[in-house]
Amino acid sequence: MSDPVLQMRGISKSFFNVEVLHAVDFEVQKGQVMGLCGENGAGKSTLMKILAGIHEHDGGEIVFRGAAVRRNPTPMEMQNLGISMIHQELNLLDELTVAQNIFLCREPRSASGLINFKRMRDDAAAILEKLGEKIDPRRKVRDLKIAQKQMVEIAKAISFNVSLLIMDEPTSMLTSKETKILFDLIASLSSQGIAVVYISHRLKEIIDIGHSVTVLKDGSLVAVKDVAEVTAQDLATLMVGRQVQTAKASDFAGDPEAVMLEVREVTDDLLKGVSFKVRRGEILGFSGLVGAGRTELMEVVFGMRRPKSGSVLIEGKPATIRSALDAIRADLGFVTEDRKATGLVGCRDITDNANYVSWLKTPGVFKGRARSLANAKRMVDRLAIRCSSPAQLVSNLSGGNQQKVALSKWLLSGARVLVLDEPTRGVDVGSRQEIYQIIRELAAEGVAIVIVSSDLPEVATICERVIIMHEGRITGTLAASELSEAKVMSYATDVGAGESNAGH
Asked: I need a surface site. Which of 169, 308, 380, 466 has the fewest CB within 10 A?
């Protein structure tokens, strides 16, 4: 029998006179895991932010646990009703501790009215232990890895007495082990009658853990399906309105001697004598578990991290790269994994963000607005960035379009070696295919591409050769034709048997 905990009826919303939600209906039953999917810009996050009290809605009504919710409530009111949301973008205060973030504005108090820090730390530790995490509640959030920060976000969300939990791309920064723990937690919450709305571009996850799935497209409701009735391919087709083809990468067929970038024996506190090469036009992948050292290695290459020893060569010539500016002037590019913190300036428009690296590369040159605008328009067209104009603030774009803007600045800079760290994190299936096509086009033009990815299907789709790391060392190298999930995981956990460990 139907037992809806939530009914959203005819929800409409406009930003800057553009309607982004068109009278959307959305319903979730008690204890149901409801998947919510759609392309970037389909309205998923906007709909859920209305439910969480973050955005006001222009039309429609919300009924929660049988009672109408007052129009445009505050986030705290919705949390007090029993609705909690884990956001796609991290929403933590770096200078506060883990415990302080989890219980912000809800700190336990002693009889005297003062904050009971011991109880707060103990309660935070208990929640984190439930998630399988051993994070010290006294640590400042700024000192955590991204995956750990995501688990703190999850801990904060479930610390409320929730009846409905919204998860927006919760596994995008998690390891496979942490993802399994999260899925077990979702099953446990569901068994207790707690409803979960699960937003993800990883469609297989929705099929694996969901009961039903709602699909949005261009701000409208397309379908509500039982997950037993659909496949991930079916959902992708509903999302983009056409068949989405997936392909497996081929082995590199270019000149093996045309080495664009070579790294020799890089060593620091984490990295242990790492060496690798990438050739002109090659798409080289780096795989491994969180903490393997992949991002740290790329930060060394780009001058953001100083190694104790080792060297970097560009087209066979030693390069002195002591800063990101040195790397930029050496025609290196780096699309970082956290676009919000290090990839974009959210308070500036598309034109500024797209041109920043080019401006840095040519100091003293007059930066004509007309030329910069023309560059931005060219990138908007080439990368199919969905925006009202290049003057739109980057913070107002969807995640996939933000990622395209982050990529555009390196395309405009003329980078000959381009590192992409988690290039499609939080990006929908349609935009993901567009980004893959751009990567292939760049490689065909002779750009050497290095992709760091925790997504094994992505590695198999785009990478012609894959290097696997474990605890700061290269433990295996596989050509695309040799690639399998089992082989990658065996090297990622350092149980691979007898194959080459060289990054050549």
From this structure: 308
Task: Evaluate the CA torsion angle 475, 477, 480, 482 in order and state its sign.
Answer: negative
pLDDT tens digits, one per residue of 209-236: 999 999 998 899 999 999 999 998 888 8
Q: What are phi and psi of 428, to 5 degrees?
A: -75, 170
- Bridge partners of 261, per DSSP, are 278, 314
What is the pLDDT, as a whole number, of residue 1?
A: 43
How distant, in Å, are the alpha carbons of 63, 95, 149, 433 from that of 144?
Answer: 38, 11, 6, 31
**What's the DSSP call for residue 440?**
H
* Share of residues in the chain with pLDDT > 90 (%): 59
Give the CA count within 13 Å in the CB-facing half-sphere of 201: 24
Q: Which residue has the higher pLDDT, 41 or 124?
A: 124
- Measured CA to CA, the distance from residue 144 to residue 290 in angstroms comes to 12
Quick: pLDDT tens for 155-178.
888 888 889 999 988 887 777 777
- Contacts from 474-483 at CB under 8 Å and sequence distance 24+? 474/274, 474/275, 474/276, 474/501, 474/502, 474/503, 475/501, 476/500, 476/501, 477/501, 477/502, 477/503, 477/504, 479/251, 479/252, 480/248, 480/249, 480/250, 480/251, 480/252, 481/250, 481/251, 483/459
| Gap between the Cα atoms of 259 and 314, Å rounded | 8
Determine contact, residues 159/304, Cβ cutoff 8 Å: no
Contact 501, 478 (CB under 8 A): no
Closest C-alpha to 398, from 2, 15, 4: 15
- Residue 95 pLDDT exceeds 80: yes
Cα dist from 416 to 274, 280, 393, whole Å: 22, 8, 28
**CA–CA distance, 229 with 293 (Å, rounded to integer):** 41
Q: Of the candidates 79, 48, 81, which has an alpha carbon nearest to the alpha carbon of residue 66?
A: 81
**CA 76, chain centre distance (Å):** 26
Among 285, 264, 289, 262, smallest CA distance to 274 is for: 264
Cβ-contact 340, 94 below 8 angstroms = no
Average pLDDT, whole number, for the chain?
Answer: 89
Q: Comparing C-alpha atoms, which of 454, 437, 479 is closest to residue 245?
A: 437
For the four alpha carbons of 445, 456, 303 and 96, in that order, the dihedral sign comes to positive
Tens digits of residue pLDDT in 257-276:
999 999 999 999 999 999 99
Please give the pLDDT value at position 401.
Answer: 87
- Collapsing DSSP states into helix, strand and coil, what is residue 216? strand
The pLDDT of residue 434 is 85
Residue 171, C-beta contacts closer than 8 angstroms, at least 6 positions apart: 178, 179, 182, 200, 202, 205
| pLDDT of amino acid 462 | 94
The CA-CA-CA angle for residues 388, 217, 338, to 5°, reads 65
* CA angle, residues 413, 414, 419, in degrees to nearest 5: 85
